[in-house]
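Quick question, first post here. What does this chain look like in 3D?
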Amino acid sequence: MEGATMATPEERSRAARIAAHSSWAQTPDRRERTQPATNASPVSLEYWEKKLREEGVVREEDISKAAVNARSAEMRRRALKSAKARARNRAEKLEYHQNRHEAWERGWRPKDDL
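> Answer (accepted):
Ran it through. Tokens below.
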């Protein structure tokens, strides 16, 4: 490979994006192409049914109802975690602004204001 140059990360990324767009442009049924990934995701009931079957705790006739409950529990866990993170971010932002206000009251000024 004399005289050949290595592609930079940016060039490889650009080529990969072109290939991905070309591939999707040739895809007749997008839903069919993404269905396996959707089924393997915690959003789908199939995911939870498979997981419950593997655990072997729930009777087969109760799997579909248990899958609905398992998915609901997971989504509620995620919502709670998200709400806590948003509250933490709000508290941090408030503390930052309060500290900045207190510093301003004590006479501190940003360098740009001088």
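The chain is about 70% helix and 0% strand.
The chain has a mean pLDDT of 93.
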